[in-house]
Amino acid sequence: MKADIITIFPDFFRGPLDYGITRRATEMGLVKIEVHDLRQFTHDKHRTVDDRPFGGGEGMVLKPEPIFECLEAFELPAREVRISERAASRAKQSVILLSAQGERFTQKVATELAALNRLVLICGRYEGVDERVADHLADRELSIGDYVLSGGELAAAVVIESVTRLLPGAVGNEASTRQESFTAHAPTREMPGSDGPDSTCGSGGLLDYPHYTRPAEFRGMSVPEVLINGNHQQIRRWRREQALEKTLRNRPDLLDAIELNDEDKKLMSRMRRGSRNPISPMSSGRRPTTDD
Ligand code: SAM
User: Fold this and answer.
1) Element (H or E) spanning 216, and its range?
2) Where are the domains of the chain?
3) Which among 161, 193, 196 has a CA at the least distance from the CA of 23?
4) Is residue 209 a contact partner of residue 250, using CB atoms and an 8 Å limit?
5) Nearest alpha-carbon partner for 133 in 148, 118, 123, 143
6) Quick one: which atom of ligand 1 is closest to the CA of 150?
7) pTM for the whole thing?
8) CA 110–ligand 1 middle distance (angstroms)
9) For ligand 1, is residue 154 a contact (CB within 6 Å)?
10) Which CATH superfamily is domain 2-164 in?
11) SS3 at position 104
12) By the 8 A CB rule, do 124 and 98 touch?
């Protein structure tokens, strides 16, 4: 994959892309990331990239000309071609404008992007970007969440990192990316999204189950008993139960979007009947909620 980032702060990316899996994927040649200084596509002596908004109002707006010229230098297929290829699921490239007004960036979108071979990420600043970029240049606008950042750079780094770790070979143990939160991987065992050792279960689009490591006892806090008893079936059931419970507690909206299997439904109805009655004889070790 090739990823081009367009920004007025190219040095911003020195840190975020130089660590962990993104760095590893770059070194392995799985992804090539190039950061482009938008000011290099200006023609005046002040290298002006912004101007006042038509109609009045606060702040400055990123001008369209340097962004269009930068994209032209990449020699990508015309936007209409990219859009029609996308509609036919044959898209290979995507030009993305990072914007608080964009569609929500999710794991599903990250998975779609990981299937492409070229991403162009345009980082806005100030009050935003001249709307002609969204209307005539970008294939999609993406928002990383319902809050306003000062610029698209952090958002671009978020997109790059989450997409890069989905590229085949980027993460040492690929099963781990298939089992993570939000990942609706095709079921391979009795549990939805299951893939890996018998004691694990995929999230199936929910939140991941809780993880623990040594020591088993730390400052009076114990690891749940079930995890050290060696019974893989029990461990997997416990993990599924915990994933369901955490999703119900922190992200109930996710439950609306997935189909639960019969065992999940039984666990859920037990949970809904009341958290005062433990949902499992096995200790969950979770924090009490206001419902308790
Ligand atoms: N006036 C804009 C609004 O109210 O929607 C906010 C502009 S923001 C201060 C400047 C730039 O930060 C945007 O052009 C965009 O590139 C980036 N940005 C801000 N919030 C973002 C978000 N949630 N996701 C992605 N990019 C964001």
Assistant:
1) none
2) 2-164, 175-273
3) 161
4) no
5) 123
6) 9
7) 0.89
8) 19
9) no
10) SPOUT methyltransferase, trefoil knot domain (3.40.1280.10)
11) strand
12) yes
Identify the helix (H) or strand (E) that includes residue 143. Answer: strand 140-143
Per-residue pLDDT of the chain (292 residues; tens, 9 = 90+): 999 999 999 999 999 999 999 999 999 999 999 999 999 999 999 999 999 999 999 999 999 999 999 999 998 888 888 888 877 878 899 999 999 999 999 999 999 999 999 999 999 999 999 999 999 999 999 999 999 999 999 999 999 999 999 999 999 887 778 789 998 864 444 444 445 567 887 888 999 999 999 999 999 999 999 999 999 999 999 999 999 999 999 999 999 989 999 999 988 888 878 654 444 434 444 554 444 4
Q: How many residues does the chain have?
A: 292
According to CATH, what is the number of the domain 175-273? 1.10.1270.20
Of ligand 1's listed atoms, the one at least distance from the Cα of 62 is 14
166 CA distance to ligand 1 middle (Å): 25
